Amino acid sequence: MENSLKELVYEFSRTAWNEYLPHLSIDCVVFGYNVANMKILLVQLKDQENWSLPGGYIRKEEDINQAAKRILTDRTGAHDIYLQQFSVFANANRSQDFFEEYEDGLWNKQRFISLGFYALADYEKVNPVVDIFSSNCDWIDINELPNMMMDHKLIFDQALLNLRRELNYKPIGYNLLPEEFTMPELQRLYEIILGKKLNRGNFYRKMIGYDILDKMDEPRMEGKAHKAPNLYRFNIQKYNIALQDGLKEGW
Amino acid sequence: MENSLKELVYEFSRTAWNEYLPHLSIDCVVFGYNVANMKILLVQLKDQENWSLPGGYIRKEEDINQAAKRILTDRTGAHDIYLQQFSVFANANRSQDFFEEYEDGLWNKQRFISLGFYALADYEKVNPVVDIFSSNCDWIDINELPNMMMDHKLIFDQALLNLRRELNYKPIGYNLLPEEFTMPELQRLYEIILGKKLNRGNFYRKMIGYDILDKMDEPRMEGKAHKAPNLYRFNIQKYNIALQDGLKEGW
Q1: Residue B195 maps to which CATH number?
Q2: Which of B23, B62, B92 sits opposite A61 (nearest CB)?
Q3: pTM, entire model
Q4: Which of B115, B157, B251 to mutate to test the interface with A (most CBs of A within 10 A)?
Q5: Are B90 and A23 within 8 A, CB to CB?
Q6: Number of folded domains that form chain B
Q7: What is the Cα–Cα distance from A26 to A113, expressed in whole angstroms?
Q8: Pick from B23, B115, B165: which is nearest to A21 by CB?
Q9: b or e along B14-36 (b: 16 or more beta carbons within 10 Å of the residue's beta carbon)?
Q10: Interface subset of B 117-156, CB within 8 angstroms of A
Q11: CB-based contact, B96 to chain A, within 8 Å
């Protein structure tokens, strides 16, 4: 018979005290984008209705970025996902209710200060891994999020807010779009992150004005040739230079 | 005779294990502004050449913001300083060299992941407190920073970068300027934070365009009456509404 979540947690706790830094956890908001849909990776722990962000702990000698990478690789098999630490979630009783029925002294029941990371991926290229603690691990559209445990919805909200602000000085577009894309595809990504419609002419003018895109010689071949949309790709050198100052810094 | 830093640290260590969360520290970059000078609060520990950021630890039941406030109040006597957590400094061996000569098992010698906070204050209103561990605590101009211990210069650099980015969506100006100020004074603050000269006409136009300032009826009375500069003050209601979207979000 399968073990319950409770049994698994008690077993994990026995070795965790030696292996990980106490009081510190990592929660990851993994944004996945593909053809005009933005999703995040969510986990449903065994015996739980609410979903949670993929997360884990930091080994005693491990850098926090290494730890976040390891956690994501375990969940996705992917090794080259863009990762960014963005905030700290530290309410003294943020996990108190969840572990109320567990015994004191359990690793998971101590006070955890969680380092929030966000990650950027193409969800078509990532296969969620259901581990022994969970019954589900899935990409879920950010407009259809289920109930989430503890403060995980707050962590998601903060991550999205950060993504919005960082559109101007982090390579967000570069990490979410395929190598070549059309201008409407780029605009759609911005609209989804910003949560609002943008004017097509303004968007085109600004993007061209930043001088960070290379226009491909060949348009995308689909349907009628005279309607084939132009393809662009980021000029990563120019993009990185522009990002240093912030794409919109008008001062 | 006065105790050495080493003796004081060993004494502190005995009770610290019971009082604070292990592995977690707080470092504060306290920006102080007054009449066109930007300084930060720095501490010189006893027997040390290098300076350090004011910092401390988190009590076992304490919220991280409470902890940062307590640390700043101890250092400054001030209770209402604007505080913002901005990044995490977690290199596995960031404090290894500094504590090399100390014994293992010492509280201060464990691995610390530091939560960086920045704070905003008027340095004329804050009196630095020299505590038992330190020989100096002073406001030092950001253009004349001395050598700093461990990764504290990096923490300062990151804090300044954050301040620059957050000029657009955090009440930075409101927390650093006196209640009433002239447009050149506001421009000077922006120039110091951004680290570059700004065009006077553009700055004036943009600031008025944001519609976040109230112009006072009376200009500042100094020198010749016909040259008295206009005084402004932030309209905090309008300012907060504008900040929600980001002052410069042009999309």
Answers
A1: 1.10.10.10
A2: B92
A3: 0.87
A4: B251
A5: no
A6: 2
A7: 8
A8: B23
A9: eebeeebbbbbbbbbbbbbbbee
A10: none
A11: no
The residue type of A151 is D
State whether B111 and A21 contact (CB < 8 Å).
yes
Q: Is the separation of the CB atoms in A137 and A47 below 8 Å?
A: no
Structure tokens, A108 = 């998971």
Model pLDDT for residues A153-208, shown as the tens digit of each residue: 999 999 999 898 888 777 788 888 888 999 999 999 999 888 889 999 989 988 88
Quick one: which H or E segment has residue B40? strand B37-45
Q: A22 — contact with chain B (CB < 8 Å)? A: yes
Between A60, A90, A249, which is nearest B64 by CB? A90
Token digits of residue B27: 């470092």
CA-nearest of A28, A50, A29, A51 to A39 is A29
Q: Which of B138, B166, B194 is the last residue of a domain?
A: B166
Contact call for residues A118 and A156 (beta carbons, < 8 A)? no
Domain coverage including residue A106: 5-166
Q: How far is CA A32 from CA A54, A115, A126, in A?
A: 14, 20, 9
ipTM: 0.83
- Per-residue DSSP letters for A81-148? -EEEEEEEE--TTTTTTTTTTSPTT-GGGS--EEEEEEEEE-GGG------TTEEEEEEEETTS---B
